[in-house]
Amino acid sequence: MSYTTQMDAARKGILTKEMKAVAEKENFDPQELMRLVAEGKVAIPANKRHTCLEPNGIGSMLKTKINVNLGTSRDCSDLDMELKKVNDAVAMGAESIMDLSSFGDTGKFRRKLTSECPAIIGTVPIYDAVVYYHKPLKEITSREWIDIVKMHAEDGVDFMTIHIGINKNTADRFKEAKRLTNIVSRGGSIIFAWMEMTGLENPFFEHFDEILEICQEYDITLSLGDACRPGCIADASDISQIEELITLGELTQKAWNKNVQVIIEGPGHMPLDQIAANMKIQQTLCKGAPFYVLGPLVTDIAPGYDHITAAIGGAIAAASGASFLCYVTPAEHLRLPDLDDVKEGIIASRIAAHAADIAKGIRGASDWDQKMSEARKRLDWEKMFDLSIDPEKARRYRATGKPEKEDTCSMCGNFCAVKNMNRILEGEIVSIYDE
Ligand code: SF4
Fold first, then answer.
1. What positions does the entry give for Zn(2+) binding (predicted)?
2. 147-172: pLDDT as tens digits
3. Are 186 and 272 in the same domain?
4. Residue 83: helix, strand or coil by DSSP?
């Protein structure tokens, strides 16, 4: 029996090799996974042309996945450097790479990714259209925006962010409602400006049926972009954000009617106490479609540390229903991230994802912590390094603070509670003072 997309296959009862791979990786019942894919609660982004892909499933009942944004820009157009970041990101556990290139030969980099990289590859066609057509924004035609979507599909990308929620209706609501930081989504600001200058409807919204046909042909997962994601905590959960989310919910159903897989993009900046409620609203309006969040950053005042503000929000979001975290680096709001920024962003995001997985009771998540705690109790330093989320840093820190007693660390030395408890419970004398 033939099928178009993973969702189509699941609805026909076909267990694809991608579903089998995801079920095995997640230690999940294949039939149950197939049911969730059929319902749209799990997406397996897998373009038929991305043949080196090692598939992953995105859904709140699976392990939380992380995405790393990379790509060339006018200020940093070194392809080799970006590829090094991609390879490092995959080695560090990123399941997804979004190529946000906005300068130079973007097609060459994109095709290199889909021919060599085993991670899920995502793109934002809006950025590329501006580079590709080499003409003022206003002169790009509705047809040309759609052609870029087709081009990315042919190049093998697994998912695309399409800023479709900001149609004429939501744009009018946004202008009426006013907000502190307007639209901070790069793609959202571009398409809003285009709509304002041309007076035309959002081309992705107007030609959604055609986009769905492209998605069916290649099995592209649509990542419905949130142009109105709050860019500061003052704008969180406002009329623009919720209005757009309602539109995204309606479009989710339209996509599912054509067996096209969907994930929904979300905030943004958001106070801690609003995050769980936002996850619930999204799950309700978008009928359980996987939620992909950028952060959320729980405060606006920490440039240089936004990997931390995002990890705090990401952990709460994922524990409350989000299934896909977009990493945020310390360079957020300041510059394009360098290799160290990328590493710090990935580690912070992985910690958030893992913390959420423990809270959600994802199968096997807390086993890792169990092993670490056992090694800690034994003061087995080599094992602790091996189990660390960043073994290199753990080793470096211990090496640069050598303790007098090799089995302890320089934090407490012979006051080491772990060592002393092990000894006293084994019947030894614990003197501390003269040891
Ligand atoms: S010395 Fe202190 S911090 Fe270090 S392992 Fe022992 S109890 Fe833990």
1. 269, 333
2. 999 999 999 999 999 999 999 999 99
3. yes
4. helix
